[in-house]
UniProtKB/TrEMBL annotation:
It comes from marine sediment metagenome. This is Uncharacterized protein. Residues 20-33 have a biased composition (Basic and acidic residues). Residues 1-33 are annotated as: Disordered.
Amino acid sequence: EERIEKLRASNRSFETSEEEEHKKLKSLHLDFE
């Protein structure tokens, strides 16, 4: 049970960090144009 919760939490943080990267790339693109 606890292990699953930890996995889920780390998964969530990974998803959010990936989303942040995506947003950064998008804003970089906008700055470029």
